[in-house]
Amino acid sequence: MKQRIELLLLAIWLMAASAAAQTVGGEIRRPKKTGTTTSTSTQRNSSGRKQNDQKGSGKKTSGTSSSSSRNDILKKINDNMVFVKGGTFLMGATPNMASDADEQEKPAHQVQLSAFYINKYEVTQEEWEAVMGTNPSEQKGDRLPVVKVSWDDCQAFIKKLNALTGKHYRLPTEAEWEYAARDGELQSGYKYAGNNGLGNVAWYRDNSDDELHEVGTCHANTLGLYDMSGNVYEWCNDVPRWYTDKKEVNPQGGSKDHEKIGKYRVVRGGSFVTDAKKCRVSYRLWTTSTNTSFIDVGLRLACDSEAASMEKNSILQNLMNNMVTVEGGTFNMGSDKYDTSEMPVHQVTLSTFGIGKYEVTQEEWQMVMGSNPTTTKNRGARVPVTNVTWNDCQKFIQKLNALTGKHFRLPTEAEWEYAARGGKNGGRHVYAGSDKLDDVGWYKDNAEHASQVGMKAPNELGLYDMTGNVFEWVNDWYAPYQNTKQNNPKGPATGSDRLIKGGSFQNVEKYLHVTNRQFHLMPDQCSWSLGLRLAW
Asked: Is the Cβ–Cβ distance between 128 and 293 less than 8 Å?
């Protein structure tokens, strides 16, 4: 841990140095030349460099474009998107990186990715200007990569580009970037993107003359992608994170909620002012805040494949279709038969609400969050997600609402109990749907771990696993009941623990009745037997 802290401090120091030098790589070089690169680029090409099949003129951009030329440019962006078939690869410090590998590249770990598209080239200045109407780069040239663009600038560019084209372009995730640089499913095993000889595939410190070069003037990698090593660093979508040795599926980076780390983003690929080490396919640099720009950082576009988009939409649609409407009503909440925490019994009136037919599954969590925190023993696409804190659930819901335009939330404790009892016409059974626990619930006597959702009988409302399988977070802080009539109670405004309801596969029978409320945790705690169910 001490070593990681020291490395992080060193990285921050390098970032400060790079900001002073206006290069993200921390390479303090002679003053950068201004003007075009036509003569340098031509000379390099005549010396054996592979010509760009869409080589531009190299002239300075004029700042004006006709609508026809803009449409041509936007069409080329789409035409240059390369399909990358999904697969599994080893991400990070693979053996061929040897002593060059830094701490933030370790450990190498398995990552599984869905298919996606990524652009053949870094975004050029003519493309940026066609969308934004301006060109922030100091060294001008239509086919030079755009630079001096912050991560926030890239988001603004992508938003405008998508509005103009009707597409869904985005920045690649860090995992997608490295997978593509490593030749996708082919995994050629090169140290750099397309070759073990960096001079064949990259403009970097030893051959660039400290200048940007037109995209596509070095050799491509096996996928036909140019400049994944060198020329300019490329923004990724991810917030920095330390790697672990756990297998990941479509990872999307760290949490954006940390006050400091959330302001950082990852850049990849090295640049025209960096040394060879920084041009390796596994090298990762955690740059400064999202509104900072550099003379050696640009971007490359990605987008989901149609199959991936259809899969995502299908999962989201199923999730929404599985929300059950619970008609409002009045019931007696609590019990005087079990634990004192369930007393006194008191009258509660609820408005109509919706609640999930199933506990949130791992495929649903993975699709929204890009990771699966569930322990290996509990794994399965249709098994409930576990090892999630109450705080994690709020992040999941926030992202889910952004994707769907809905207003998902956690149920209140009162809503949860009312639904578990069967709603307006329920309330007859000890457990959710039956007096026989084995009919409706997975618990200690019949399960060793979480099971696929919906395998036991539902209750009167068609809700599954409200007894057993995994505990479910509710929204309320824990507090003793009050002997008063209540309308749509939401619990106290503050507290130390949030309630969890329903029991789990780890519990004995006496903790599985629908009124039980003996279990509560701090909102940053989690368990391998604790998940969630959505409401709206």
From this structure: no
- Give the DSSP letter of residue 202: -
In degrees and rounded to multiples of 5, residue 33 shows phi and psi of -70, 155
Q: What is the DSSP code (8-state) at residue 434?
A: B
Give Cα separations from 485 to 419, 495, 504 (angstroms).
19, 22, 30
- What pLDDT shows up at residue 113? 93
DSSP-derived secondary structure letter, 442 = B
The per-residue pLDDT for range 10-52, each reduced to its tens digit, is 344 334 434 434 676 554 333 333 333 322 222 233 223 333 3
How far apart CA 140 and CA 123 sit, in angstroms, is 14
Residues 258, 81: contact at Cβ < 8 Å? no
Q: How far is 433 from 460, CA to CA, in rounded Å? A: 6
Full DSSP string of 109-138? EEEEE--EEEESSPPBHHHHHHHHS----S
pLDDT band at residue 160 under the 50/70/90 scheme: very high
Cα–Cα distance list, 451 to 55, 346, 378, 440 (Å)? 57, 34, 8, 12
* Nearest-angstrom CA–CA distance, 109 and 371: 14
pLDDT at 312 over 60: yes
Angstrom distance (rounded) from CA 282 to CA 179? 10
Looking at every residue in the chain, the average pLDDT score rounds to 87
Closest listed residue to residue 232, CA positions, set 157, 288, 294, 289 = 294
